[in-house]
Amino acid sequence: MRTAARTAAPVALAALVLLAAAPLPALADGDPANGEKLFRQCKACHTVEAGKNRVGPTLHGLFGRKAGTVETYANYSEGLKASGIAWDAKTLDPYLANPKAVIADSRMAFAGVAKPEDRADLIAYLEAATK
């Protein structure tokens, strides 16, 4: 029995190392067509058109942009402006899941997108539509 335990431990450790090293699917590998449908809930406050703000800022040019820096939009919270976040798939995912958990004083009145696959789809759409 001791021999089996000694053999199983290294095998289990090797399996964990392989799992940890396995590449995860990129968030932007989501389905942009479904993401466009999901974006309908965002349209009340945001557009993907350059220079067109609504209650929230335009999302045009979102990827690579620092949070709180659209020059034609003045209603950012201090927390968002001070966050230092540069938007990309990795920073958008937790923000879209729960904006208030990422930036407590965010003015974005949105509870979040619960399903990771929906967030991946939305991010894929935004990556394509906001260029």
TrEMBL record:
<keyword id="KW-0732">Signal</keyword>
<keyword id="KW-0249">Electron transport</keyword>
<dbReference type="InterPro" id="IPR002327">
    <property type="entry name" value="Cyt_c_1A/1B"/>
</dbReference>
<feature type="domain" description="Cytochrome c">
    <location>
        <begin position="30"/>
        <end position="130"/>
    </location>
</feature>
<dbReference type="InterPro" id="IPR036909">
    <property type="entry name" value="Cyt_c-like_dom_sf"/>
</dbReference>
<dbReference type="InterPro" id="IPR009056">
    <property type="entry name" value="Cyt_c-like_dom"/>
</dbReference>
<dbReference type="GO" id="GO:0020037">
    <property type="term" value="F:heme binding"/>
</dbReference>
<dbReference type="GO" id="GO:0046872">
    <property type="term" value="F:metal ion binding"/>
</dbReference>
<dbReference type="GO" id="GO:0009055">
    <property type="term" value="F:electron transfer activity"/>
</dbReference>
<keyword id="KW-0408">Iron</keyword>
<keyword id="KW-0479">Metal-binding</keyword>
<feature type="signal peptide">
    <location>
        <begin position="1"/>
        <end position="28"/>
    </location>
</feature>
<protein>
    <submittedName>
        <fullName>C-type cytochrome</fullName>
    </submittedName>
</protein>
<keyword id="KW-0813">Transport</keyword>
<dbReference type="Pfam" id="PF00034">
    <property type="entry name" value="Cytochrom_C"/>
</dbReference>
<keyword id="KW-0349">Heme</keyword>
